[in-house]
Amino acid sequence: MGRKRYEIVSADVHILEPRDIWEKHLPKKYSDHAPKLVKDHEGGDAWQFSVGSPDPIGLVSTPGRRFEEFRWFGVTYEETRPGCWDGKERLRDMDIDGVDAEIIFPPQRTIGHWLSMPDEDVSMAGIDAYNEFIFDEFAAADPDRLIPCYQIPNLGVDTALKFLDKAIKKKAKSVVISSWPSGGENISPDDDRFWQACVDANMPVNIHISLMSRASGVKSYEAGQKVTSGVGKGAGAANQRAVGAMSGVFTRTTPVLVGFILSGALDRIPDLQIVLTEIGVGWVPH
Fold first, then answer.
1. pLDDT tens, 186-218?
2. Cα(142)–Cα(88) distance, rounded to whole angstroms?
3. Residue 88, SS3?
4. Percentage of residues in the chain having pLDDT higher than 70
């Protein structure tokens, strides 16, 4: 059943979460914590993750549009290609592009929202909901071509191991971590339990851009709850945030690599498979 040969693999793609993702996949008792679909100040669709201005979908839904048509605000779901959130439609787009398979990473704003939740049960529920959607709905269209990375929480090694088991049951081909398995600021000896379990499962570990500790994520979330509703409105503010984010692509991976090397983790567990994505000259904005 598996495809025996891949000629062109897109190694870092994302999806735009469908409008009904949380209604369909998140338990109702957590619905108050789910991102809300609202309108931006130009009438486009946007996701409200916290107080303050919502995040527009404009530049996370650009496939199929000319560069001259790119804009932050005023873009609705009706204007985007369905392949942004529908697996069957994504396969059609891949056929047009001549792409055999895609490695799929979570939408960064959305997964960051759940990773930053102070309540651990809420955090796990949101991550579970995303994993359920991307594996059971989106990638189900063709698991040999649509290859999601199973998102691991930042709630400590024991929780990471539980989610690794879930990934194995979903027949995931890789996992993605957004923090060290311990959730701490730096790599720790306790992380070895997770690394070894990944080796035992022949499961590659993906790191997308860099890692952030749980404490830093929660702090950022709590700060966001105090922002006034008018902050960050307009293309200028959006561009400023984007430039800052892109600059981090070229610098934030170094501490991760140094951590792996100087901690001796790769000496202790030499068969660990690590994939670093969207880093340095491996990703150049256009």
1. 999 999 999 999 999 999 999 998 899 888 888
2. 8
3. helix
4. 88
Question: How far apart (Å, rounded) are the C-alpha atoms in residues 33 and 110?
Answer: 12
Specify whether the CB–CB gap between 21 and 31 falls below 8 A. Answer: no
25-34 contacts: CB < 8 A, separation 24 or more?
A: 25/129, 25/130, 25/132, 25/133, 26/125, 26/126, 26/129, 27/125, 27/129, 30/121, 30/122, 30/125, 30/126, 33/117, 33/119, 33/122, 33/126, 34/126
Is residue 57 within 8 Å of residue 80, measured between CB atoms?
yes
Residue 224 phi/psi, 5-degree rounding, is -65, -25
Domains of the chain: 9-15+89-282 (3.20.20.140)
Alpha-carbon distance of 209 to 40, in angstroms, equals: 28
